[in-house]
Specification:
Blueprint (H helix, E strand, L loop, with lengths): L16 E4 L13 H9 L3 H11 L7 H11 L6 H16 L7 H10 L3 E6 L19 E4 H4 L6 H11 L6 E5 L2 H10 L3 E5 L12 E4 L4 H6 L15
Parallel strand pairs: 1-2, 1-4, 2-3, 4-5, 5-6
Length: about 240
């Protein structure tokens, strides 16, 4: 990365579990995100729609139809219930069959072989939580949804949920994500190790203690020098 000092190996000797963001990190984003589609239907800005979704859907479980009804009622647009429901149902279907990046399955499998517990932490809509765990995530110990914890990244409580699930302390956890604010800043503030996944190779400065990755395949190599950790308390709970 231009302007960034070359780092040899990160100081991850105490890492016993890795947490990943989902959208943009493990899962390919849509051409037009669900929130953008909602914004277009309501005639509001993307920023307004993001705030709306964070308040309405990212902190609780809710069905696509119920969320569509609530949003339509808030904007006094009962005529949009059907269109909003369709958008949200499509999002739920995509979440049940996620389009993961090519480097995801081999990376997760390699990390599991190294003895690490693996988690995903996402701010996805509560209306998009799949009924069954997707096969693409079979190597994950657990997927933690903001709609189930009531906390969204970068809030401290979001990271505390992974600490509770893993039985580990902040210094034993590494978080990998593509958002500097939600992932890097949130994990750093929580006292975790951090890695920023910069798939587009954007020329953006990152904190000196954050590792910049261009592919997930680098992770097993960076963690290979770390002693094999003792299995976490909940590592068998799949």
């Amino acid at each position: 990365m231009t302007g960034q000092p070359r780092r040899s190996r990160p100081s991850w000797a105490g890492v016993r579990a890795v947490s990943f963001d989902l959208g943009g990190t493990l899962v390919r984003p849509e051409a037009q995100p669900t929130t953008g589609q909602v914004a277009e239907l309501l005639g509001i800005s993307l920023a307004e729609a993001r705030t709306l979704m964070e308040q309405k859907a990212k902190r609780r479980r809710i069905s696509p139809a119920d969320l569509a009804g609530e949003v339509a009622a808030d904007f006094q647009r009962p005529d949009l219930v059907g269109s909003l429901t369709s958008v949200l149902e499509r999002a739920r279907h995509r979440a049940s069959e996620p389009d993961v990046y090519d480097d995801v399955r081999p990376t997760l499998a390699a990390l599991r072989e190294q003895g690490l517990a693996l988690f995903a932490m996402t701010n996805s809509l509560g209306s998009s939580i799949p009924e069954h765990a997707p096969a693409a995530f079979r190597d994950l110990t657990q997927v933690i949804y903001s709609a189930e914890t009531g906390a969204v990244k970068p809030e401290r409580a979001a990271f505390a949920a992974v600490e509770s699930a893993s039985g580990l302390s902040p210094h034993e956890l590494l978080h990998v994500g593509n958002s500097l604010r939600a992932d890097v800043d949130g994990a750093t503030a929580a006292g975790w190790h951090t890695a920023w996944l910069n798939r587009t190779r954007a020329d953006i400065a990152v904190p000196s203690d954050t590792v910049c990755l261009h592919s997930l395949t680098t992770l097993p190599l960076l963690l290979s020098a770390v002693p094999t950790p003792v299995a976490t308390r909940n590592s068998e709970a799949r």
